[in-house]
């Protein structure tokens, strides 16, 4: 009875409605992010339901042959949609699209869309809505080189949407995108990968620094979830990673990861995003959270490429939230984080050749913190003033009290210039102070009989409170006047 109802529901999904949905979903992204649009189904394109080819979707039967038959049927029509009604589709081996040849042009499986009925919610939440999801479950041999869904190019204009791809702790990868261009992945979740939830790579050789074997692809609202302890979330690579050897030497380039994207890596030694020989990739609005918690790996990890140590380079992360720090070794350059969500727990990256700015305006560039003036105040003497006390006391008119300082991340720079004179024997000292506490290494001394002496002092200190008071203090060794004839105090909050 349930099968009859499901068949009836599938029948009510009109071909025109599916085509309209596919057109809207890709067109909105293409208009803003892609120079070359992935092809979508048109009224003349094919449409195949995997259940019409014998797929069951009950999580028990091996549906791999039926799914392959549906893909081949669409391919024979020049491309189109392979539709997966809700269900769990067991795969006795990897589901491969493309022939994986080393030729420059492939003759198979271009313009194919795999369209599910939804990926449901987080696997940790037992919502009823999850029962209506489409899930591909790898149940082949345990193999770290296998991928539950393996797109083996050269391929272009593919699309995958609205499904879960479960590596089932058996396959190394959830989705492998190998030498694929101009394609879009929407609302796709990978689960239980042992090496990486996603990998974008290539196989054909290109000149170093001019590599686009896997490029112009978009991941929109995609997840890598429930990774095994040693797995990354997403790998963009060329050549050898820490966990697996890949053929060829090109990289992943010009790919976009957009909006509401969550890449959960595993434990120590893993990363939410692992970039190796990748350039000109852009990540918008993503979360990179290794699931190992405080013992987790890096949220983003840069691994220089042995073929050219400048890579990975010119990758941009915009509005990214990270629970762990950015890791890797120096030698990469031109990678940018803007804006960086400090509230998710990760420190602002300070690796060489990385530039970053947080939501609060904190900035680092090429391994060093960038300090800018957030507030500036000035105090100056209108007339000469004297100090006679043997202990340090404030010079009237030379103090500034700041408010609203970003304590813990800001610094305060204080600069004094003026003229001092000691009379009637002894010496007089003048120095800068924070909250009345003298900073001895800024001391300026005037001896009796030396006449008027130019004095200057400057210091940068950490802001320990939101309301620090910066001032000039002075003392006289014998109780006779130390005169400050002229002076100005400049105080800057650096952020």
From TrEMBL:
Domain Rhamnogalacturonase A/B/Epimerase-like pectate lyase: 47-130
Top-level taxonomic group: Bacteria
Entry-linked SUPFAM superfamilies: Pectin lyase-like
Pfam families, sorted: Pect-lyase_RHGA_epim
InterPro entries, per the entry: Pectin_lyas_fold, Pectin_lyase_fold/virulence, RHGA/B-epi-like_pectate_lyase, TAT_signal
The name this protein goes by in its record: Rhamnogalacturonase A/B/Epimerase-like pectate lyase domain-containing protein
